[in-house]
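User: quick one - fold this with magnesium ion bound?
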Amino acid sequence: MGIGTLIDGVTRQVELISDGVSETLFEPVIRLGVTGLSRAGKTVFITSLVANLLDRGRMPALQAASQGRIESAFLQPQPDDLVPRFEYEKHLSAMTGPNPHWPESTRAISQLRLSLRVAPAGVLSAIKSARTVHIDIVDYPGEWLLDLPLMEQSFEQWSQGAIALAQKPSRAPFAAEWLALLELVDPEVELDEPQAQKLAAAFTAYLQAARESGLSACAPGRFLMPGDLAGSPALTFAPLPAGKYPRNSLGRAFARRYETYKSGVVRPFFRDHFSRIDRQVVLVDALGAIHAGPQAVGDLRDALADILSCFKTGRNGFLSALRGKSVERILFAATKADHLHHHQHPALTAIMGALVRSARDKATYQGAQTDAMALASLRATVEETRSHDGETLDLVRGKLLSTGKQAAMYPGRLPEDPAVLLKPAEQGAERWLDNDYAIMGFAPAEVSLKAGDGPPHIRLDRAAEFLIGDRLI
Ligand SMILES: Nc1nc2c(ncn2[C@@H]2O[C@H](COP(=O)(O)OP(=O)(O)O)[C@@H](O)[C@H]2O)c(=O)[nH]1
Ligand SMILES: [Mg+2]
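Assistant: Sure. Structure tokens for the protein plus magnesium ion:
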């Protein structure tokens, strides 16, 4: 590299820094993190939120919108050149175009900048003019948050925990093949790359199978959501029994790759992305877990506790050292509430609250405000009430994903007391005692949007008010 390039590099950096300064001085930026385990509904949430902030006809609970103070809204090139852009237009046309369908699933981090031109509220409106507020929406897999505990664990500690977890009755069936392979392995023998790959593949297959059956807590997160790291040596390791791990041994190699994974994958994510977030929404497919059964609900609760621990301050030395600012607001939202008649939404909200309650009570979040709610980012159903054997049933109706036909569904009655679900989940029961919960996949409905209206949703406006409303002044 010649001296010209070096100088160029330096000046460009200076420009970037001064850009940053003027921006923070005059135009506030809110970094809104959107996370959740895969299929929780992140892509649909962001797409619908952005569409409904661009066209605010369905956002009455967002006060700045209902007071008419949002003068304009527009998408901008996002400021982080190294992060892929959230493919808003593509996802929106999938969901609301002709023959509407759900967007393709995404497997890595992405980002989008939405800017709002906001007039000040009340008395201020006479003396201050409108200003621009930037909202940087960051979409990242919740699986990646499950990696935080690794930062404080050695390879041996992590291995021990992971092997013990895999032997639990709820997981053993998925882990059988990997555990059998592990029996035959001597971690002190010389590294044999094909064998190493076989072990890593069997371990990954176990994590995936557990995940597909509805279980949640499966670290390392990149094994399930590799992003652009698929197949790289940083992901070619697996837990091993304790040993001396001499030079060139399998054990030594895996321990080193584990450390590389921490320093090269986990740390940069927390440093470059997570530590900069101001507001966070954690999306949760609670209905999916309830449908999958008590063990899935128990697992979801554990995963949420792990996710929550990332927002605690003080407890985790690694994170406290990284964090420049603390997250100010955290919303836990049960998604896909359009699978339930609105009579059941309070029960779903209560379950969502209870799922995060124990973790929430234990932690201090340095003043972070938290809330729980049930929402649907894109409403795919309409409600219907029918009588059946002298009882009235509250149903939802929509177009089935499987057949394309219209169908009405009764998902079962959620208990008003969340303990009815959480107790059996804690006790590791195999099935719900006196209830069954159905869930059907619905396709997004055909909608013809009025000018000024975004896509139909449930409580997305309330979520937006909680997450950013106070900053739109
Ligand atoms: N009925 C309904 N289904 C939803 C909603 N949001 C997400 N889904 C379903 O959940 C799936 C996963 O959503 P997606 O946003 O891709 O999840 P991600 O993996 O967290 O980004 C979608 O393909 C839909 O089937 C919603 O608001 N209503
Ligand atoms: Mg996604």
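One thing worth noting: Residues 1-24 have pLDDT under 50 and may be disordered.
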